[in-house]
Specification:
Number of helices: 12
Largest sheet: none
Distance between the termini: 95 Å
Radius of gyration: 35 Å
Strand content: under 5%
Length: 210
Amino acid sequence: MSEAGIISAGREAWVRIRDRTKRQADDWYLVGDALVAGRSTCLKLAGSNSLQTPAYRAHWRRWLDANCFGDMDTHERLNAIWVAEHKAEVMRWRDGLDEAARRHANHPNVIVAHMKSGTEPAARGPKPKQRTAADRVRSDAPRAGFYGPRPVKPEQDLIRRVAQAMRSSGKNDWLQLATIAIEALTVADLYALLPAKAARTAPAAVGLHA
């Protein structure tokens, strides 16, 4: 196939890759071949053998944009070129994978990463959600009933008395306020808050505290 034909086939393959979720290795081979051909053309136009010269880079950028490869990720593009330059080796490696691993060995980033590390690709499920502080509080909180039956709804007088104790403390820290609220309760208050069944089985009330 001529250089123009290679570039045209790679351009068409890139359009197919962008337009569908499933990306076949064969299309990536065509894309890599087109990029290699384009790189060779740009080196000739720049009159250089180096990929680092400003002249080459200018020609390369124009070539990428003109052939619809301008939106390709740089890392993806470099790996596609690597795959094209090692195609025989890559094809032997893929042929040696089992069917499940081969299905996940289409993208050049995956191929290069696993070939260089000597591992096999596997299906990638959704990443576990990172737990926030609020998630940890919710998940680590005791389940309903963990400490026994829920208390009954407190009387308004008790609520006002606890609120007054918290207000009078002048504290803003939640832990300190919680401590103050608990300390404001009397033994009689605690028994009053117990469900009826639990209250009947509770030990006799002892002396009250302030």
